[in-house]
Amino acid sequence: MTTNPRGIAKVLYANEQPEGAGAVVRRSIGTPQLRNLSPFLMLDHVNISPGAGFPDHPHRGMETITYVLKGAIDHEDFAGNRGTIEEGDLQFMTAGKGIVHAEMPRANADGSPNAGLQLWVDLPKELKNCDARYRDLRASEIPKVELDDGKVRIKVISGQAGGVESLKDLAYTPVWWLDISVAPGGKLAQPVPKGWNTFAYVISGSASFGEGVQKREVKQFHNVVFEREGDVVNIEVPAEAKEGVHLVLIAGQVHDQPIVQYGPFVVTSQAEVRQAFFDYQTHSNGFERAKNWASEIGKSMMA
């Protein structure tokens, strides 16, 4: 079976910026350097210290995938849904025609910040008016696989790797999400779906991506965006490296549709943006339950 390695389209450093109420994020998708990478709208590497968070705010027309790397995050919405995702857990949230919710960190005993990744994913046009829904994925539900004599460890959050498949139907838009750790001397040739947009974000350490003259070392807090052509991503950590790499490799099915975004509203035309604001302000067409609603977890920050 022949494989075609993916080349590197660009490498971006995720600068720190303020977001929400006192939170700090490193944003690598959703910046002037990389505005949209269909179906991906935004990727934030989030650090939330005690007293900070994301109090009550709306969404329409998109999905969020939140992955907790350290600590725990509480969430609550205007439909009465509430819960907590802890270290290693994920939440797949579909905003659909409308949701208002809050996402707030649990306080850690040692006072340290909570950390995680949040990815915004565009919904296909025909599903933008679907009902909101949640799917929490617990760390214990995520299959794992080891390759290259244990030097490569993969959590198969969504998609497949090393002959292991994830749980199904986590999001409406097809997305692969692999949490990958490679020790010094480890190599991985990871298949990805043909034609899907694919990127890797380096959480810690560094690794070489690509093959031959295209091979490039990429360090912590950088996002590697791959060319659309090809069906394999090559990742390697040299044997002489002092540490391994921890990264996420993410791929998504491309939508053939315009992306018109204004803050948390993601639609396909300017008229739909105006409609989203009208619906939110008048508590209609998906936002009915927003009237007079306030989350319990966000009240301390809304006073």
TrEMBL record:
PANTHER family: PIRIN, PIRIN-RELATED. Residues 178-285 form the Pirin C-terminal domain. Its cofactor is Fe cation. Binds 1 Fe cation per subunit. This is RmlC-like cupin domain-containing protein. Residues 25-121 form the Pirin N-terminal domain. SUPFAM superfamilies: RmlC-like cupins (SSF51182). Belongs to the pirin family. The keyword Protein biosynthesis does not apply. Fe cation binds at H57, H59, H101, E103. The keyword Iron applies. Keywords: Iron, Metal-binding. GO terms for molecular function: metal ion binding. It comes from the Eukaryota. It holds the Pfam family Pirin. It comes from Microdochium trichocladiopsis.
